Amino acid sequence: MHIRVNDTVEILTGDERGTRGKVLSVDRTAGKLIVEGVNRVYKHVRRSQRNPQGGRLSKEMPIQISNVLLVCPACSARTRSGSRYAADGSKERYCKKCSKAIGGPISPPRTAYAKKSN
Ligand SMILES: [Zn+2]
Questions:
Q1: Can you give the residue range of the structural domain that contains 86?
Q2: How far is the centre of ligand 1, averaged over its atoms, from the C-alpha of 21 (Å)?
C-alpha cells in the first residue's frame, strides 16, 4: 500500500474522475480509502433529541484504492510512487516522475542501509 493518510490523490474513475482530494483514512485490509469530498452520500435525518434540526447529513464513503492515483506534492502530477532508502537509512517514498521524496520517512533510520560517509 503506497497511499497514506493526508496524501493528495486524484480519482481516476466514475463520476468524480479528475477530482483531487485529501486522504482521510486508509483501510489496508479492505484496500479502500476515504477521500475528502469524494463519494459523498447524504442521509436524511428526522428531527430528534440529538439532532433537533433534522436535515441532511453528508458522509464520505470508502472507495477502492485502485481507482485513485497519488498526486506528487512537488510536481503536482499524478504519479506512481516508489520506495527507496534515504541517506540516513530510513525508507522514503518518491515520485517516479520528478524523483523527489513524498511526505516523511516511512520507516525508522537503519544504519545498515545508511550511505557511508567518508
Ligand atoms: Zn513529482
A1: 80-118
A2: 17
Amino acid at 94: Y
Name 35's bridge partners: 23
Give yes or no: residues 65 and 111 share one domain.
Answer: no
Rounded CA gap, 66 and 15, in Å? 15
3-state secondary structure (DSSP) of residue 66: helix
Per-residue pLDDT tens over the stretch 27-70: 999 999 999 999 999 989 888 888 888 889 899 999 999 999 99
Helix (H) and strand (E) counts for the chain? Answer: 0, 11
Amino acid found at 30: A
- Could you tell me the distance, in angstroms and rounded to a whole number, from the CA of residue 48 to the centre of ligand 1? 49
